[in-house]
């Protein structure tokens, strides 16, 4: 089996990260894997304790929060694997997960990235992800296949090309990263893995789903309360993704769609939900895209307050 580096990022979730490390140690032959944990500017540095607790794990510390992409990218210099498995710390692996994903990359050199099927940890029979549809570049919308469906094996024979991987669990071929580059760090949160898929596809690789590999994600199936951070980055990065990836005609149609439909709809929803405090963040997200280029590292959000 090819060398695999398992990379996960911790931010103020030490008990969650420990549960993940215990999970992978129980379900996988950890001696055959390189496991890397990046502590992404947590308030308390647990690495001195973890070094003794998990002697087979490589720990990296960043003194500041680099975001999802930045935290994962920090591990690239230390990763030795031919394949890199980027996986959220709030997941629980199942037996054979890594091997099944490796088999796809071994057998199909054209595959640059592959994700497993994902179920919700709190509702373990419920699917979170069994693939994505392609992006509609006129509206910047696509669909998550299988989400909220009871898993009865209905997608287990759909191994193959999908629109996008899922950022919670994605195995990436090193040569694909070398050709396409790492994840863009200026997204900070949301859309960075979708943007990465587009760049890896342009580099000549395919994006696959392997639904016979399974992982559980501790993200709740219930939609949580909106926050300024989530609303800002979801809107800012949706526009940024389009600026970086959409054809010219699609950009024009998307801009009209966003201005005429999305902005008024969002404001009405904020009012109905008694969340008018989110309206300024919508306009800040739009303004960021008007004044910054697509590679700007200025987040426009007070990251130190996260």
Automatic annotation (TrEMBL):
The keyword DNA damage does not apply. One of its GO terms (molecular function) is glycosyltransferase activity. The keyword Transmembrane applies. InterPro entries: Glyco_trans_2-like, Nucleotide-diphossugar_trans. It holds the Pfam family Glycos_transf_2. Gene3D superfamilies: Spore Coat Polysaccharide Biosynthesis Protein SpsA, Chain A. Keywords: Glycosyltransferase, Membrane, Transferase, Transmembrane, Transmembrane helix. The chain crosses the membrane at residues 248-272. It comes from the Bacteria. Residues 5-179 form the Glycosyltransferase 2-like domain. PANTHER family: GALACTOFURANOSYLTRANSFERASE GLFT2, RHAMNOSYLTRANSFERASE WBBL. Belongs to the glycosyltransferase 2 family. This is Glycosyltransferase family 2 protein. It comes from Arcticibacter tournemirensis. The lineage of its organism: Bacteria, Pseudomonadati, Bacteroidota, Sphingobacteriia, Sphingobacteriales.
